[in-house]
Amino acid sequence: MAITGTKLFIDGTAATAADANQYLMRGVKVFETTTARDASYNGLNEPTLEEGEVCYIKNLDTLQFYNGTTWQSVASATGGLNTSSEGAIMIMDIGA
Question: Quick check: pTM over 0.70?
Fold first, then answer.
């Protein structure tokens, strides 16, 4: 379930499990390594990996996104921005 927008949570109204999964659980996740990242998806009681997921890999100092097939680097502290058309599209989606 990818983020489809934002939600205004109002005092006194119930937040559902779907709200948590849709809005609260979909921020930028931080992992020590790509191995830890890969182990965090598609298992029992783990989220399903979907196109548009974003993560930060600490040992690589890199921001990545999932394009539906593979993880791609968006930016690195040492390497700058990903200038591929796919990376540029993802950056535009994040800012939208």
Answer: no
